[in-house]
Design a protein that fits this description.
Structural class of chain B: mainly alpha
Strand content of chain A: 15-25%
Number of helices of chain B: 8
Number of domains of chain A: 2
CATH architecture of the largest domain in chain A: 3-Layer(aba) Sandwich
Subcellular location (chain A): Cell envelope
Oligomer: heterodimer
Pfam families (chain A): SBP_bac_3 (PF00497)
Largest interface: A-B, 42 and 30 residues
Order of helices and strands of chain B: HHHHHHHH
Distance between the termini of chain B: 53 Å
Family (chain A): Belongs to the bacterial solute-binding protein 3 family.
Radius of gyration of chain B: 21 Å
GO molecular function (chain A): ligand-gated monoatomic ion channel activity
Shape of chain B: flat
Keywords (chain A): Signal
Number of helices of chain A: 10
């Protein structure tokens, strides 16, 4: 669940990005539809973080990008008849890069939020997931909701929707971390009582982190993930939505989701 | 041993990242010197028209975060039709930033050379430029080396900021490995060791430069 709200940052850089975006927004956008631009170029430039497994990450063996987002992006590009060109960049700068045209789309678990929709257009959602608690393996308290964490310390990603949700419950001591590895290590050390992250990521975390942690309850609303692109490209939106609908109809999305998450996250009820 | 296996797995990505870090730092050092020397000379120039743009430049570059400068150059300038590749934008931002600091080191060193050195030059019939080049600068450089080396060694670490413009230098490469291995501590320590090793090389260069410039003062 790509977590950054547009104006509150995971890192300082995002606010800078927002300033740059604001500057850019004053200037006229190019007239041609993005679809014509990418067709003429023959390739789709796709941005992702490359540090967010199992969604998108550098495979340790091959050094190549791998993950659910990578496979989805390749499948979408193929449906559009385009060659995928991947760019990895830090999350803090990723929306600024989209706004200034460094790439065409972001496929990196970008949550569809009202604020982001003011700045960008989104494809139809391609992933649904919800926040989930993570606790130490020997934890005796079974937290069922965020309200149960009052007076406890909860670790979240900086500027994430998880952070916003945690802060909206009074009494929780919220600690924000740059990324999941640091967050989980502090959880294992006992510096925090629980962590909150994407339910789709939790299974991967438990399998690969080798830390004494276990999955807790799912606690929040379901989030929808989409593919953002610059506003004012109706033809591109139609083609992108068509490609995603096709992948949904023929079961490709479901197959990719099952491969990476062990469950079908490609539709609302899961 | 798990730690050894982890570091061996991380090594190719991190060493490639370190290579980019080194390239960025070297390119920015050359760029920074190319900017810093003329700016320092402009700031001590007897003509006000030369002084004020240099003063403004130094003030802006020292008064704003490097991260903002990188952002503006890479993500902001395309809005007015100026487009750079990530490499160019990164080197440009680092050069412009370090150039300002280098010029201040050099200006301070020139100011430390006593006025009678200038007067001695003039009394021998040398012009402003000749006195500067043959009398003042050789002495000033010797004073400037330690603080200029500070700036250049800082550059090696400042390169980590270019990861926000899609460049996989050492820090981003390290984060990529941490993202899949969940072992922050040993990998951050390994990155720190690489930065330190790179800095040691430049400390050695500083030592050589100091020895060379001190020959006349032994």
């Amino acid at each position: 669940m790509r977590t950054l709200s547009f104006f509150s940052s995971r890192r300082r850089a995002c606010q800078l990005g927002a300033v740059v975006l604001a500057l850019g927004a004053v200037l006229p956008a190019s007239a041609a539809d993005l679809l014509d631009t990418v067709k003429a170029r023959g390739s789709l430039r796709i941005a992702m973080e490359g540090t967010y497994p199992p969604f998108n990450f550098k495979d340790g063996k091959t050094g190549q990008l791998a993950g659910y987002d990578v496979d989805v992006a390749k499948a979408v590009a193929a449906r559009l008849g385009l060659k995928p060109e991947f760019v990895t960049t830090e999350w803090s700068a990723i929306l600024a890069g989209l706004a200034s045209g460094k790439y065409d789309v972001i496929v990196s678990q970008v949550g569809i939020t009202a604020r982001r929709e003011q700045a960008f257009d989104f494809s139809q959602p391609y992933t649904w997931s919800s926040p989930q608690l993570i606790v130490r393996r020997n934890e005796s308290i079974a937290y069922q909701s965020l309200a149960d964490l009052k007076g406890k310390t909860l670790g979240v990603g900086q500027g994430s929707v998880f952070e916003q949700q945690a802060r909206s419950v009074p009494g929780i001591l919220v600690k924000s971390y740059p990324a999941a590895p640091e967050n989980l290590q502090d959880l294992a050390f006992g510096r925090i009582d629980a962590a909150l992250n994407d339910s789709l990521m939790v299974a991967y975390l438990l399998k690969n982190s080798q830390l004494p942690i276990k999955a807790g309850a799912r606690v929040g609303a379901v989030e929808r993930m989409g593919i953002p692109f610059r506003k004012g490209n109706p033809k591109f939106k139609a083609a992108l939505d068509g490609a995603l609908a096709g992948l949904q109809a023929d079961g490709s999305l479901k197959a990719l989701s099952t491969r990476w998450f062990g469950s079908d996250a490609s539709r609302p009820a899961h | 041993m798990a730690l050894f296996a982890l570091l061996r797995e991380a090594a190719p990505a991190m060493l490639t990242g370190a290579g980019y870090t080194l390239l960025f730092a070297l390119a920015a050092m050359i760029g920074g010197m190319a900017i810093g020397v003329p700016v320092a000379l402009m700031r001590i120039a007897p003509v006000a028209v030369l002084r004020w743009p240099a003063t403004l430049y130094v003030s802006v570059m020292r008064g704003t975060p490097l991260l903002v400068q990188i952002f503006v150059i890479y993500y902001g300038l395309p809005g007015i039709g100026i487009e750079f590749t990530p490499v160019t934008a990164g080197v440009l931002a680092l050069s412009l930033n370090s150039g300002a600091y280098l010029s201040e080191s050099l200006r301070g060193a020139i100011a430390s050379i006593r006025q009678d050195q200038w007067r001695a030059g003039f009394s021998l019939g040398l012009g402003y430029g000749q006195t500067l080049v043959h009398v003042v600068l050789p002495q000033a450089l010797r004073v400037a080396v330690p603080s200029m080396s500070n700036t250049l060694i800082s550059l090696i670490k400042d390169t980590s900021l270019v990861s926000v413009i899609t460049m996989t230098e050492l820090m981003l490469a390290t984060k990529e490995v941490i993202a899949t291995t969940f072992q922050p501590l040993p990998l951050y320590l390994a990155a720190a060791a690489i930065y330190w090793a790179l800095s040691l090389v430049f400390e050695q260069v500083q030592r050589l430069a100091e020895r060379r410039l001190n020959r006349a003062h032994r």
